[in-house]
Write a structure and sequence with these properties.
The chain has 25 helices and 20 strands. Helix content is about 40%, strand content about 15%. The chain is of the alpha/beta class and about 675 residues long. Strand 4, helix 4 (about 105-115) and strand 5 (about 120) form a beta-alpha-beta unit. A 7-stranded mixed beta sheet has the order 2-1-3-4-5-6-7, sandwiched between helices. The protein has a 3-stranded parallel beta sheet with strand order 8-11-12. The mean pLDDT is about 90.
């Protein structure tokens, strides 16, 4: 477009340690599409995801306006672009939006004064604010001073006027989100199908709950609205026809499966899966009530780990964070029903929230494992800007002890308008409170590592049924491993020592201290290289998986000791456990490094046909063969392609592998087994 003002909209991701946020820029694309609907003839809009693409466009020239989506994982990168470009071109108008913006007036003023390059901040929903602001900019010929001098109040817009006083427009939500054009159906996201990014889909917006740790828990966001089903179907079809070696779809709904309309949405997804074999994996946050409906939804679609994030089972902790969970009985019923038909389930706990203790944290994990949840997620309590938990009153009431650290995967040196700039994202996490010491925090993190390693993603699913037959729970096994350090091999000790070291050394008393340290050139190089600053939990798990023989030895030795302590380790059980150890190593060791490797081994048990999920100690003797059977372990072509595609999305960087092992259904990665005659 000739002589038409350009407005650029960016939802940036870090790219120097793999792609940090490997998803389509869906939120920014809604803002883009809504503004384009009304102003497309007057404005040339452009949408960016990668900082390299944004920088390449700067080489051609500057737009009238640069706008950025602000999240905890990309703010510093976005602001560095804004600051540098503003210095080069003071007439450039900078707009920011996104959930991580203070809720209190004095904090808003402080935020904007500290980040003077930001001319306007969009609160609440971006579509209304961005369109209203751009319309005023057009009407005022992009005269920034004219707007600020007149204290113009614009819907959802917050800014400092010429006298540095805070001006806020009325907060408004989009009354009917179906008025927002689909960025998929309008072709505004076509470019991103050619990139290693996971598509995202929004079917509802808003959350009725008020959790204090979540930016969506604000009262201004509690109204839930829904897109029409036909639009959802059209978007699903559009995506399925265009995905390129991507198997996953992320549903951005905050409570998927909780509403009766979600059943119909699930049917649309199931239809798409049947027709296009996409998506095979679905990421979605489950609802916080209506367990029966959530279960119904999970039975309709494939590839979704249904569940309920408990965060904590302690009533005092839940009260402190304004969280309402499923009742104990409702949760147990949900897990029991899902187990009957093999539905995959997921739950999560958050460490160090107000009122938490080591004992309460362990108890919450035990509750989930005892109720047979398939996957456990372990999170640390983050104090996100724009949440009630980050407010001064909450900090003081619960004596929250916080540290600052680099968010893994979110740093690097970037080219911006002719120069290179180091950038890192820093987050504030809770490492203690008046009931949880920092030493207990470290012990909880160690236990978290054992849970996600030894329990998640079916890595040792062949073992747990045998234990349960003798009334030994998965939690019992993991807690035994945690307490009995004498079982650890040298390699296991090295992994744990590194894990604790990384957990401690990446924590700083202030944002400034953390930022200064990580941006020191030699330190930054170590971070980028993966020697420092990884997600210690994901990285530790990745190391356990990559050193599977040592990991397997540890787990199986713990199993033997538990059986021995109960007088159950007879010769039959011992022989079976010895062969099972070899079988697991053949099937699951080095599954990423060398997909062309084929392994052969002779066994007294035909593990290719034994139902290991229903194995019992009393049946072991009958399962033993009179002659050895020769088993072949290998990856087929489909598996090799799958692993290749996963590495394309997540990379083979330490951080990428950690994410991949967490997100991937590892059953698709373990070697196939067949009898060789």
């Amino acid at each position: 477009m000739i002589n038409v003002p350009q407005i650029w909209i960016s939802d940036l991701t870090h790219t120097k340690q793999g792609i940090s946020a490997a998803t389509f820029p869906l939120g920014a694309s809604y803002v883009y599409s809504y503004a384009k609907k009304f102003l497309g003839k007057e404005i040339d809009f452009k949408l960016f995801k990668f900082p390299e693409d944004l920088n390449n466009s700067l080489k051609i020239g500057f737009p009238k306006v640069m706008s950025f989506s602000n999240y905890s994982w990309n703010f510093e990168l976005s602001y560095k672009f804004a600051h540098v470009c503003k210095q080069i071109n003071p007439e450039l108008i900078i707009i920011f939006g996104g959930p991580n913006f203070p809720t209190e007036t004095d904090e808003k003023i402080s935020f904007l004064k500290k980040r003077a390059a930001i001319d306007f901040y969009i609160e609440l929903e971006g579509e209304t604010g961005f369109y209203s602001l751009v319309k005023e900019l057009v009407n005022n010929n992009f005269n920034l001073s004219k707007i600020k001098n007149n204290n113009l109040q614009i819907d959802n817009i917050c800014y400092l006027n010429s006298d540095k006083k805070l001006i806020e427009g009325p907060q408004k939500r989009v009354l009917n989100i179906n008025d927002i054009p689909s960025p998929y159906l309008d072709g505004n996201l076509d470019h991103f199908f050619n990139l290693p990014l996971i598509p995202m889909l929004e079917t509802t917006r808003g959350c009725p709950f008020a959790c204090s740790f979540c930016a969506d828990g604000l009262a201004s966001k509690n109204r839930v609205t829904r897109y029409e089903h036909q639009r959802t179907l059209d978007e699903l079809t559009y995506i399925a026809k265009r995905v390129n070696n991507i198997e996953e779809l992320i549903i951005t709904d905050l409570n998927f499966g909780m509403y009766k309309q979600d059943v119909e949405t699930a049917k649309l997804i199931a239809s798409t899966q049947k027709t296009y074999n996409f998506p095979t994996l679905i990421g979605a946050s489950p609802g916080k009530n209506q367990p029966k409906r959530i279960l119904d939804v999970s039975r309709i679609i494939k590839g979704w780990n249904m569940g309920a994030a408990v965060q904590s089972t302690d009533p005092d902790v839940l009260k402190a964070i304004k969280r309402s969970n499923l009742s104990t009985e409702a949760y147990r019923s949900l897990m029991e029903e899902s187990a009957l038909d093999g539905t995959k389930t997921e739950s999560a706990v958050i460490l160090a929230m107000p009122g938490d203790t080591k004992e309460k944290h362990f108890k919450s994990i035990k509750f989930c494992l005892d109720n047979k949840v398939s996957t456990m997620r372990m999170f640390q309590a983050m104090l996100l800007v724009g949440t009630h938990m980050a407010e001064k009153k909450t900090r003081e009431t619960y004596e929250l002890k916080t540290k600052f650290r680099t968010i893994p995967g979110t740093l690097g040196t970037y080219d911006i308008a002719g120069n290179k700039y180091p950038v890192a994202e820093i987050e504030e996490i809770i490492v203690g409170n008046k009931t949880l010491t920092e030493d207990d925090y470290i012990e909880c993190r160690k236990f978290n590592l054992f849970v996600v390693t030894f329990y998640n993603n079916s890595i040792f699913e062949e073992i747990f049924p045998l234990l349960e037959d003798q009334k030994i729970s998965a939690y019992d096994l993991i807690y035994y491993i945690y307490k009995n350090t004498n079982l650890y091999t040298q390699k296991i000790n090295e992994i744990l020592k590194k894990f604790v070291k990384e957990t401690k050394e990446d924590l700083y008393d202030s944002w400034e201290e953390a930022n200064k340290y990580v941006l020191t050139p030699e330190i930054l190089a170590k971070y980028i290289g993966g020697d420092m600053g990884t997600n210690e939990l994901l990285n530790g798990r990745a190391e356990f998986i990559q050193n599977f023989e040592d990991t397997c030895t540890l787990v199986m030795n713990a199993v033997r000791e538990l059986f021995r302590e109960r007088g159950l380790l007879n010769e039959t059980v011992k022989d079976y456990l010895d062969e099972l150890t070899i079988y697991l190593n053949c099937k699951k060791s080095n599954v990423i490094k060398n997909t062309n490797e084929t392994v052969f081994h002779k066994f007294s048990y035909n593990f290719s046909v034994i139902n290991l999920k229903n194995i019992k100690t009393k049946n072991l003797e009958s399962k033993k063969l009179k002659k050895f059977v020769n088993l072949k372990f290998y990856h087929d072509d489909k598996q090799k392609k799958f692993i290749e595609n996963q590495l394309r999305v997540y990379s083979n960087h330490a951080i990428g592998l950690g994410k991949m092992f967490q997100q991937t259904d590892m059953r698709k990665v373990y070697r196939k087994v067949e009898v060789v005659l």
